[in-house]
Amino acid sequence: MILPASAPAQEVPELIPVRMLNEFAYCPRLVYLEWVQGEFADNLDTLEGRFAHRRVDRAATDEVPLPPGAEGGEAPAEVAESEPAPSDVPETIHTRSLMLSAPNEGLIARIDVVDINAGTAIPVDYKRGKVPDVPGNAWEPEQVQLCAQGLVLRENGYQCEGGILYYVESRRRVSVPFTEELIARTRQLAAELRLMGQAQVPPRPLDDSPKCPRCSLVGICLPDETRLLQIEGAEPNELSDGDSLASGTAQEEAATGAATRTPPGTKVRRLFAARDDAQPLYVQEQGAMVGKSGQALTIKKSGKMVAQVRMLDVSQVCLFGNVMISPQALRDLAGAGVPICHFSYGGWFSALTSGLIHKNVELRQAQFAIAADTMRSLEFGRQFVLGKIKNCRTLLRRNLQGDATAVLRDLADLARRAAAACDAGSLLGLEGMAAKAYFAGFARLLKGDQAFEVEGRNRRPPRDPVNALLSFVYALLVKELTIVLHSVGFDPMLGFYHRPRYGRPSLALDLAEPFRPLVGDSVVLTLVNNGEVKPEDFIRRAGGVALTEAGRRAVLAAFERRMDTAVTHPIFGYQASYRRVLEIQARLLARAVLGEIPQYPNFCTR
Description:
Elements: E1 16-17, H1 18-26, H2 28-36, H3 44-52, H4 54-57, E2 70-71, E3 77-79, E4 93-102, E5 107-117, E6 120-127, H5 140-155, E7 162-167, E8 172-177, H6 180-199, H7 218-221, H8 223-230, H9 241-247, H10 250-255, E9 279-283, E10 289-293, E11 296-301, E12 304-310, E13 314-320, E14 324-325, H11 327-335, E15 340-343, E16 349-353, H12 361-371, H13 374-399, H14 405-419, H15 424-443, H16 465-488, H17 506-512, H18 515-529, E17 538-541, E18 544-547, H19 549-563, E19 566-568, E20 575-577, H20 578-593
Parallel strand pairs: 1-5, 6-7, 9-13, 10-14, 13-15
Antiparallel strand pairs: 2-4, 3-4, 4-5, 5-6, 7-8, 10-11, 11-12, 15-16, 17-18, 19-20
Helix pairs in contact: 1-2, 1-5, 5-6, 13-14, 13-15, 13-18, 14-15, 16-17, 16-18, 16-19, 16-20, 18-19
């Protein structure tokens, strides 16, 4: 049908998945993260729930007539096995995994099982746990979800007065009548959910809720951390007396925000694992082939097996130089969300292969808007540079022998000036001055022989072994942050402080600034001072210095040890590995970009 020009077509409203109503009644912020921002993560509860649904979700083998509005055509059906029914008794049909929509209600539902008898339909919803010991033997979110399924069935012409919740662990059915109160509550929640989606303002996290520890998205939501940073008055505090005596006055530390701690009486729970059991897989054997056999990755060279590792134990795959990967391994790694990082033979991070990009368009829109705004970009740039200078100062304060008063005072002064920089050019100049002062002190921390003497920072190519080590470790750090930013939903190529340049992950470089001394420089000090790298681990060509394969292997081992090191978060007070800290900071950056918290909180050790 073609409408006349004077009659505009009616816009069909976006349909709300009924499952989202369940989660909205449970936690509005959870729904916002899943439905609006496209976030999802599995935990034991979600995996067990999927396992409990395996029977109703499996593909159909028999076709049955579907009602108007149903999607598919192959929904499985079973007729109850009993004595043959008389011809005048209506047949009961059990239809599994039935997808129906209800435009008037604004809902769409995939119903686990529907008992249909003579136009009367009873939805059955499977739940993984036990029957709860509450009035009605069902939680409100579960009743709302079932009632919404009933409203969908009603709009599709069925009579539906109640439903059934089946608890898998208890093996028990609970009947839920669709009362007027329950129907009104269901429609109210649907209206509130729709308004929340249109407002594009994430709801505040739950306050110290017992729901949070069991939520699969708790590591994405960061409820306690976000609420803390939203609290008015959660400002930087002075250092302890012991710290202030080592480096000047306490007022000097407070002026640069050298330490931020949890306000008294505020509890921050660590609701996620301190570290991930999966680890990066590094392959630098030239001519090697990464393939797949069952659920394991294989590394072969000249047809001979070199190594084999379970895909479950791999968080990323890093390929150096001429290392190949099979299409099957590439497809399965991308499907599992495991990125493949490509490095040049010398260790230059050049490309990243991953699955489909993150769905969080809202975050990227906000990122692009800030990047286009000079003053807002400067606010983030000041934080990145400030964090870098403070952490450089802390590293020297902890390790520099002899009188370090002058360099520490200079860095404190530069940190204050960076916090007040009025334009990007001034900020860049202050960072350069701080780097010059810092590397003069950093050179005094190296205990190797003459082969590891260094005069300032140089690169492209690095002209001495220390700068070769720094360049390689910084490339590994930027690789880690590029992966994290991808997983959070950012575009790593568009930064706020580092301006866009073809092929450069500018936002990853931004976020790396405060972590260069904490991760990169600390790894180099460990390698040199502990004798883990030697002069023969370097190659000198055409004025440049590069690592040998054995040297890179030593660096990779030290870098992974550092990334797995547990460190106390200076703001939240709990311990997490550096790799987990990078993820936390990237998610806090997302909160700041979306306006949930007033500014990006630096990670600055004391």
